[in-house]
Amino acid sequence: MVIGGSGHTVLLWCLRRVLPLVLLLVSAVPSFAEKKLIAAVMTTDIPRYREAHRAFVRALAQKGYDQNNTEIILQAPNPDPISWANTVRKFEALAADVIVAYGAPITLAAMRETHDLPIVFVDVYGPVETGISRSMTMTGTNLCGVSSKVPMVTLIKTIQEFKRIRNMGVIYSSREAGSLVQLHELKRIGAQQGFAVIDANPSSAAGLDTMLNSVLPHVDCLYVSECSIGSRQFEKIVAKANSYRVPVVSQMPESAGKGALVTLEVSPVEQGQLAGESVARVLGGAKPGQIPIVTPKKIELIINMRAAKALDLHVPFQGLSAATKILK
Q1: Torsion of CA 240, 241, 244, 245, to 10 degrees
Q2: Which letter does DSSP use for residue 227 in this model?
Q3: Dihedrals φ, ψ of 301, to 5°?
Q4: Distance CA 196, CA 168 (A)
Q5: What radius of gyration do the chain's Cα atoms show?
Q6: Does the domain spanning 36-148+267-297 belong to CATH 3.40.50.2300?
Q7: N- to C-terminal Cα separation, the chain
Q8: Which CATH number fits domain 152-266+300-327: 2.40.37.10, 3.40.50.2300, 1.10.645.10, 3.40.50.10490?
Q9: Would you give the DSSP letter of residue 228?
Q10: Spatial CB neighbours of 318, under 8 Å, sequence gap ≥ 6
């Protein structure tokens, strides 16, 4: 090799020899021209959404989307339609790459406020029943996500092992779609199994007290649906129900640990992990409408022996044998 002549000749030689090597090295490294922006928003700030979100962040990092190439903004607005809509509009103005929506109400708000941004929902009870998706396979629109629906009839069958239910009280919120789905499902099951449903739709803590005092004397069991006030006031609801010797059942995570007699729960951690996988697929170029809605594989039927003892209820062997977890 002879390097001679003008500087121009030397420069040309360097470009021919070195530039292809540089391009090869650059192409071998994953490229993020700019950080991906993920806008996460909760229907309300409650522990199960926080737990799911932490699992979501970990799962996303395992897929290669961490703080080096991804920015995650988490918002928990006031639990009302105006606040939900305003939060989604802010995310759209920021041109987020994807919206992660925790709960049915904020998911529906996101659907109304944007038709272009990808949406991945988490902890939605009944995506089809709430009107979020037309099927559990592919939504065909700009969203996909994780369903938290459980076989409600299993929960009712288990509580019927403890005592005969003639009237079931239900705490629900008419503003929250998942809560309404559960109310309608319980009414359908009640019509089939021969018990009546007495519903209470409190809008405040003060209203909750009034409704509990009105409903509890007339029911054999109290179901607390997936709603903001039910989650925030759960231990208070259990204490009041215990004073009337009325057992509480629910499908909200951690409700057995807070005093419910029987619960049927899906894990917020598993939901967050599944959401992380879906978001990674969206960020990788997949169309949300072609990603199937997923459901956690692990569903726990939990019986709280302490609650049974406090209510002086006999624990049937059949109920214990069906349980996946027993709190002693």
Answers
A1: -140
A2: -
A3: -95, 110
A4: 6
A5: 26
A6: yes
A7: 83
A8: 3.40.50.2300
A9: H
A10: 161
Structure tokens at 5: 């002549």
Query: Is residue 11's pLDDT more than 80?
Result: no
3-state percent breakdown (helix, strand, coil) of the chain, nearest 5:
45, 20, 35
Within the chain, all domains assigned CATH 3.40.50.2300 are found at: 36-148+267-297, 152-266+300-327
SS3 282: helix
Decide: residue 56, CB within 10 A, 0-12 exposed, 13-18 middle, 19+ buried.
buried
Q: What does the pLDDT read at residue 99? A: 98
* Eight-class DSSP state of 310: H
SS3 222: strand
Task: State both tokens at 272.
Answer: 């967050």
Q: Quote the longest CA-to-CA distance of the chain.
A: 102
pTM of the full structure: 0.85
Q: How confident is the model at residue 21 (pLDDT cuts 50, 70, 90)?
A: very low
Residue pair 241/212 in contact by the 8 Å Cβ criterion? yes
Q: Are 219 and 246 in contact (CB under 8 A)?
A: yes
Q: What are the beta bridge partners of residue 78?
A: none
DSSP-assigned states of every residue in 183-201: HHHHHHHHHHHT-EEEEE-
**SS3 label, residue 197:** strand
